[in-house]
């Protein structure tokens, strides 16, 4: 069967992809914009709004012979439908005749718009959507000049109805296209919106508590074709035509969501450019046109008053504000005096350019130990070897393919991967989720059917023996699942570090690599390994020579001078204060002071991702650029400039003038980056669906990708190297003595990290910290939900309320990271729990 | 002559949106030039001047500082380097104007 068919569009033959949706096909191949409101290229068509009515005809066939009937001139007879048809529910077929510009079509569009506007408020001048509103644009293009409706009959409905903490609904503006309801139901799987009542009373409601309870709610405001859904963050904040879009990358997780920062020179920021809102930027291989709410609403830290504003030098017991000149001179002297005993620990929020300059600085000072923080995930090296193949796109996984997600909770760690993996399962991929506890993705794996479609998946619940044993014994314990994974056309394994120590996560990554190698799922597109490394540049750390092993080495043998760059040691590690006290001189550079200012000799302000140029490598090894957007805060410098200046002060080479120059140098020196330039990262291409341009009616306000889609670094396996299985190191989980449990730190998307707290809008969505205990274990210990529990582990003691659950394995308790005043253990460890107070409402 | 007057008149009555669009066209072109040749002073100076004209003192300062970083690396043995010296002077002047601009905004 041919991959293309020929249709006749307004009298001209056009070749289009077979099986395509008519609206998509004519837009992509012929640039014909059939107007739509309810249709969205990422969702199933519903034909509700009737805006896409067209005349449709197909070749007439003889009922007896099935042959196409011909006119006298030999051309096929075309039989048109007697009534107009919705283009969005039509699939193209050979010989299809489409008329989009005839008088009946024009009249129909006119009538639909007149009807939609019959009760639409005329508040465009104060509407957030004004200027980028599909209803406005399509009314100008296709609508009536006047209305026959009575103005007094317009409905007056709630205009500021909060659907949750983040999204407001203007019920007057809603045209009931159901894009938001369908997005939540079909794509996200969080079915939290619904239609309520019927006819003219029809309205959108939320049926969750808290309202609109999902991590993806902001996307509904992008695809809303009117100004009915607006974000609490941006509403009434600026007009779209005042904003300048600057391409950027999400600073939160390994997905590397492509975003567009809407900037304006703003009075509230001293006349400097300010982020007014964060919008998605189309990159079909990374985040398509979606972003998580954390990415959208979590940008306020970039201009927080709590940021470090000036360089500070220790003078006796306290740090005193200083200037860069004095700080650089003093730090250079300290580095020279260290006799080469210099090391660095860099956080995963550091861009590549900063990491490169930091590495050069440490080397210039005679050191070699480069630690990656946090030292919890050991999967980066394996991803560099057998990571998903060149040209991979999670959006292409479907029938015949399989995905194994093990030892991680993607909903909380990398929400966009969770969204895309759930959609892959919708398309037919077989999803297996393995963990010691229930996760959101496990719910999807076990659903069986969704939206009238069969979906396939399985869940594996392992116990205290952990993920490594579960994967190594998969053939023995779960032969059917193992066989199905091996037999899949494409296989992606997402291996995390939940419930594992660093050696454990390394062992899991190797075991996963071996599974992929043995089943032949490496070195090709849509096959290979992913790891939800914390932060946006976990893979950048790996490629630039920073490793979690080196961080552990630094912890066990602290150097004379330690440079801590954008790493929150004291917030992450309960033992940090103790081992940092053995370092003579700490040079700490960060956005916020996590308490290291009490120990450091130098505390230096760094610029955030929004204030400078740079690049990150995402979990799929895609190098992506972000651009200078927001005005600087205080005297903060970009990391590359700080470390480059320090290196210059050591007389070890001149400072580079820009991030572009630093990247040019690192691409010459680091083999993985060879031949890549900033210009390559800025390259774009036409992407399907063709959303994100000026025609907002079609895909919503996902901004076109003008900043580049990035370059994927090849994995070793892509180059036909590293194709032999390796010995999985012996790994046993920490032993728990009698009366002890395994304390497993877990990640929560909304937490109390210093760079997240300034986004006050999300504050109500941060849950209370709870220790989750197995129901049988709790019964033995006499614990019920709500009891105050004391946890003693890794030399620390924490008090939290208990949540008793039968959805976690026996012998295991979970503690959320960054939710309590004291840090939880860095990785899984044995510990004890005891009840210190009973629940306020006794359930005994 | 007529065309020149009409172009001047068009510039006079340019809408803020049009002005913004043109600014970003120029900004992106200069940024692309910097990406291509990161060690060329002229592009930093020009982009800094453009940012200052646009009212963005912070971006301007960063670019003038980058130009001056390159100027520091100039080797006197390479000769008089008249163009580079002129650019350095422009960068110094621009940096002072940017600082002045920021002070005015803060005031």
Notes on the structure:
The complex is a heterodimer of chains A (844) and B (107). Chain A has 844 residues and is of the alpha/beta class. In chain A, 25% of the residues lie in helices and 21% in strands. Chain A contains 25 helices and 37 strands. In chain A, the strands form nine sheets. A seven-stranded mixed beta sheet of chain A has the order 16-15-28-27-26-17-18. In chain A, strands 1, 2, 3, 4, 5 and 6 form a six-stranded mixed beta sheet that branches. In chain A, α7 (324-337) crosses α21 and α9 runs parallel beside α16. The model of chain A has no long low-confidence stretch (mean pLDDT 94). Chain B is mostly helical. Chain B is 81% helix and 0% strand. Chain B has five helices and no strands. The longest helix of chain B is centred in the C-terminal third of the chain and has 25 residues, at 82-106. The radius of gyration of chain B is 16 Å and the shape is globular.
- Please work out how many helical segments of chain A DSSP would assign: 25
Give the overall shape of chain A: globular
Query: Unreliable segments of chain B (pLDDT under 50, ≥5 consecutive)?
Result: none
Query: What is the level 1 CATH name of the largest domain in chain A?
Result: Alpha Beta
CATH topology of chain B: Serine Threonine Protein Phosphatase 5, Tetratricopeptide repeat
What is the residue-averaged pLDDT of chain A?
A: 94
The helix count of chain B comes to 5
Largest sheet of chain A: 7 strands, mixed
Helical proportion of chain A, percent range? 10-25%
What topology does this entry show?
The complex is a heterodimer of chains A (844) and B (107).
Chain A: E1 4-9, E2 12-17, H1 22-30, E3 53-59, E4 78-80, E5 85-86, E6 97-99, H2 103-116, H3 134-142, E7 161-162, E8 167-169, H4 179-188, E9 193-196, E10 203-206, H5 218-223, E11 229-231, E12 244-249, E13 258-265, E14 273-280, H6 293-297, E15 312-315, E16 318-321, H7 324-337, E17 342-347, H8 352-364, E18 369-373, H9 380-386, E19 402-406, H10 410-413, H11 415-426, E20 430-435, H12 440-445, E21 449-450, E22 453-454, E23 456-461, H13 466-472, H14 474-477, H15 479-487, E24 491-495, H16 502-518, E25 528-530, H17 538-543, H18 548-556, E26 561-565, H19 569-572, H20 576-580, E27 585-590, E28 602-605, E29 614-617, E30 622-626, H21 639-649, H22 659-669, H23 678-681, H24 696-699, E31 711-712, E32 741-746, E33 770-774, H25 775-781, E34 788-793, E35 796-805, E36 812-816, E37 829-837
Parallel strand pairs in A: 1-6, 17-18, 17-26, 19-20, 19-24, 20-23, 24-25, 26-27, 27-28, 32-36, 33-35
Antiparallel strand pairs in A: 1-2, 3-4, 3-5, 3-6, 7-8, 8-11, 9-10, 12-13, 13-14, 15-16, 15-28, 21-22, 29-30, 30-31, 32-37, 33-36, 34-35, 34-37
Helix pairs in contact in A: 2-3, 7-21, 8-21, 8-22, 9-16, 13-16
Chain B: H1 2-12, H2 16-36, H3 41-54, H4 57-72, H5 82-106
